[in-house]
Amino acid sequence: MSILVVGSVAFDTIRTPFGQATEVLGGSATYFSAAASFFGDVRLVAVVGEDFPEDHLGFLRERKVDLRGLQRVPGRTFRWVGEYGFDLNEARTLDTQLNVFADFAPKIPEEYRDSEVVFLANIDPDLQREVLRQVRRPAFVAADTMNYWIARKPDSLRQTLGLVDTLVINDAETRQLAGEANLVQAARKILGWGPRGLVIKRGEYGALMFNDGDWFAAPALPLEAIQDPTGAGDCFAGGFIGYLANTMNFGDASVRKAMIMGSVMASFNVEAFSLDRLRALTSGEIQARFRAFKRLAHFEDL
Ligand code: AMP
């Protein structure tokens, strides 16, 4: 089934305790598309500037991501500079240059408007609603956001939340958005604003989901070699939403498997900088890691 993503395509400069990378391919839509492309047909809408090299997108093309919705306009591409300490769960943003993103007005191509599943990646919440105005009747809409927008556009974000099925955010964002320290109370408050489901990503501690009145906890795989957590959240969303689009089954058992698929894709992505691990990834490795997650969390009844 077709998956529409609208988000950022970026140049990222990243420092982690294990290395650094300068002006490498990043962006929420880029990571999401790469991860989701293992499960369905992905259609990308984003904007880049004149400085964006054509061959940067070769990998997404190889993965059959539809790039007809990628606009190229005069100006510089969006840039993000971030660093992580030994606690890889928290990215410190050192610089955000919106550049061509500042005037981005997402235009959904006619041939994308029938997309069944929509992911509103981390962009201005005004633009997220603009996207929903242009699509016909998606079966499932999920959205992400981050501290940048929670702080700058809380009212707009609340309006967007009224239009989405599931919100996929991290634990710090959950607390900030709700203004509540306790995650359970924060989740209840956010769900009161509209979404039926809430996925809370907790980095190396896994992810929690509150869906139709039920909690589900996905573990994170204890990994030997983590290089760079950038994009883990978007790869999680790519696996989670990709799996749901693949099955078009939004029942409890299916969303639980989707949570594990999200965790699988995130666990691969953190093993290398930029999208490098996904470039080498195979479907066989994805299936094997899904089973590793099952073993990790399995226990017998009393
Ligand atoms: P995450 O999955 O949360 O680690 O997302 C990382 C990606 O988000 C990076 O590749 C950045 O380019 C992108 N990013 C950072 N800040 C913003 C922002 N304010 N708007 C859109 N994308 C952003």
Tell me what the structure shows.
- The protein is α/β, with parallel strands linked by helices.
- The chain has a single domain (2-297), classed as Ribokinase (UDP-N-acetylmuramoyl-L-alanine:D-glutamate ligase).
- 36% of the residues lie in helices and 25% in strands.
- It has helices at 28-36, 58-62, 125-134, 147-152, 154-161, 171-178, 183-191, 232-247, 252-269, 276-279, 283-297, and strands spanning 2-6, 10-16, 19-26, 41-48, 66-72, 79-84, 91-97, 117-120, 140-143, 166-170, 197-201, 207-211, 214-218.
- The strands form two sheets. It has a nine-stranded mixed beta sheet, sandwiched between helices. It has a four-stranded mixed beta sheet with strand order 3-2-6-7.
- Helix 6 (171-178) crosses helix 7.
- The longest helix has 18 residues, at 252-269.
- The protein starts with a strand and ends in a 5-residue tail after the last helix.
- It binds adenosine monophosphate.
- Adenosine monophosphate binds at residues 8, 10, 12, 26-28, 31, 80, 96, 122-123, 148, 230-234.
Task: Pick out its properties.
302 residues; UDP-N-acetylmuramoyl-L-alanine:D-glutamate ligase; nine-stranded mixed β-sheet; four-stranded mixed β-sheet; globular; binds adenosine monophosphate
Write the layout of secondary structure elements.
Layout lengths: L1 E5 L3 E7 L2 E8 L1 H9 L4 E8 L9 H5 L3 E7 L6 E6 L6 E7 L19 E4 L4 H10 L5 E4 L3 H6 L1 H8 L4 E5 H8 L4 H9 L5 E5 L5 E5 L2 E5 L13 H16 L4 H18 L6 H4 L3 H15 L5
Parallel strand pairs: 1-4, 1-8, 2-6, 4-5, 8-9, 9-10, 10-11
Antiparallel strand pairs: 2-3, 6-7, 11-12, 12-13
